[in-house]
Specification:
The chain has four helices and 21 strands. The chain is mainly beta and 354 residues long. Strands 3, 5, 6, 8, 10, 12, 14, 16, 18 and 20 form a ten-stranded mixed beta sheet that branches.
Length: 354
């Protein structure tokens, strides 16, 4: 069997076809292996290994064809917190071997509990192949899950990162993402804000260079009353990189009092980059408040003049501003070891370029 091309990251309300932003096409190998991630599981977290058929069917960011991306999964690893556990679950995904592989994880936070999960996706600089990870979550009343994802994959890797879950009353989901490597990266995230006063917070930063591709689809599905979401993305495009950002705040009928905002800040460092951004607000409920916006372009000429007059070279100014976008998100990670990993990685990259 040969590879198949699947359509993922579907925009909930399609725009003009000629813009080519309604979805993404990803090449998925026909044969894949089930990848077993390295793990550190703290006390207070229970683990279970489930059959692939037991994977949650909650909607995810990839959309209807998500199941086909992960059709070779042999097992699903489920983690459930038994209280407010501050020590993180560490899941290490080393894709250096180049095999085509997939993995699935489920996270459960019962009423009044909390958990921190750190997923580290990495490989050697010359890493290659296909990898896919599905992460599903269920957040009960007054519970919280913080999910941190750090991606430092090789220059010839295709990575599919699909996320989906549900928040009950006053439940909260915080997603912190850093995309710092990989040839083709596809991210889909769909959060069902079903319970009253449930909350979604997304903070992500990226650096995309060479001819690499980053394709994103974030959906906040508001059905509960007085729900809230805040989606913030910031990144840098270099060389001939391409990036698509889809951000949808969907106010469904019955979500009275809901609020939402989404903002993207994109720094274009070269003329050959391709940037596409579509912040979208859908509304079928009157008593809601939503805002969206994007800042896209090169650095302000007045700022450049000021910094150059202080003795900074143009290249150094752009590198400083690029690093600032990543640092702002990195500093939100509630784990010192992960912050140190990111800083060491970026320091190494800077040394190689120097």
């Amino acid at each position: 069997m040969s590879e198949q091309t699947l359509t993922i990251n579907n925009l909930p309300a399609p725009t003009w076809n000629w813009l080519r932003m309604n979805d993404a096409n990803v090449r998925v190998p026909a044969e894949k292996l089930t990848y077993i991630a390295g793990e550190e599981v703290p006390a207070g977290i229970t683990k279970a290994v489930l059959d692939a058929a037991e994977l949650s069917d909650v909607a995810s960011g990839f959309g209807p064809q998500a199941a086909s991306v992960f059709d070779e999964i042999g097992e699903v690893v489920s983690y459930t917190t038994t209280g407010n556990i501050e020590e993180p679950i560490r899941l290490d995904y080393d894709f250096s071997e180049g095999a085509n592989c997939v993995n699935a994880v489920e996270l459960h936070a019962p009423e009044g509990s909390s958990m921190l999960v750190i997923q580290n996706f990495h490989s050697e600089k010359n890493g290659f192949g296909f990898a896919g990870v599905s992460t599903k979550y269920d957040i009960a009343k007054n519970a919280k899950i913080t999910l941190v994802q750090v991606q430092t994959l090789g220059d010839d890797m295709t990575f599919c990162n699909d996320i989906g879950g549900r928040c009950d009353e006053e439940g909260a989901f915080q997603l912190i993402q850093l995309v710092l490597g990989g040839k083709e990266t596809y991210i889909g995230s769909n959060t069902a804000l079903a319970g009253k006063r449930s909350d979604l917070q997304v903070n992500m930063a990226y650096i995309v260079a060479d001819n690499h591709v980053l394709d994103m689809n974030y959906i906040a599905d508001h059905t509960g009353k007085k729900t809230h979401c805040d989606i913030q993305a910031a990144g840098v495009l270099r060389n001939e990189a391409k990036k698509v950002f889809r951000g949808t705040i969907d106010f469904k009928r019955g979500c009275a009092g809901a609020t939402g905002s989404e903002v993207e800040d994109v720094l274009l460092m070269d003329d050959g980059v391709i940037n596409q951004t579509i912040p979208l607000i859908l509304c079928s409920e009157e008593d809601v408040e939503g805002t969206h916006g994007a800042t896209i372009g090169k650095l302000n000429e007045d700022l450049l003049f000021y910094l150059e007059s202080r003795g900074l070279a143009l290249r150094d100014i752009y590198e400083m501003m690029a690093r600032a976008r990543v640092d702002a998100v990195c500093n939100l990670i509630p784990d010192e070891a992960t912050r140190d990993f990111v800083n060491n990685y970026l320091g190494k990259e800077e040394d190689e370029e120097a």
